[in-house]
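Students often ask why we bother encoding 3D structure as a string. The short answer is that it lets us treat folding as translation between two languages. Here is a chain of 80 residues written in the first language.
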Amino acid sequence: MVLNVSTAFVLINTDLGEGNEVFDALKEVPEVKEVYGVYGVYDYVVRLEADTMQNLKDTITVKIRRLNHVRSTLTMIVVE
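And here it is in the second language, the structure alphabet:
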């Protein structure tokens, strides 16, 4: 049996000096499967999985973008 899973990668910018708090909060979100701290334009790359596209969207807009100290996000939804 193959389950259809919606997957996305979210690039996150945090407020200066607040990355650890955001990292800890991201690890508490059930749909977050991986979190990587990165150098460059963004501070974190997150891989999400959800059972439906709507749940994926809700996770991004409600559970991630509203976290304290998240300054901005860029979402890439996987199509294949």
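Translate back mentally: DSSP finds two helices and four strands in the chain. Keep this in mind for the problem set.
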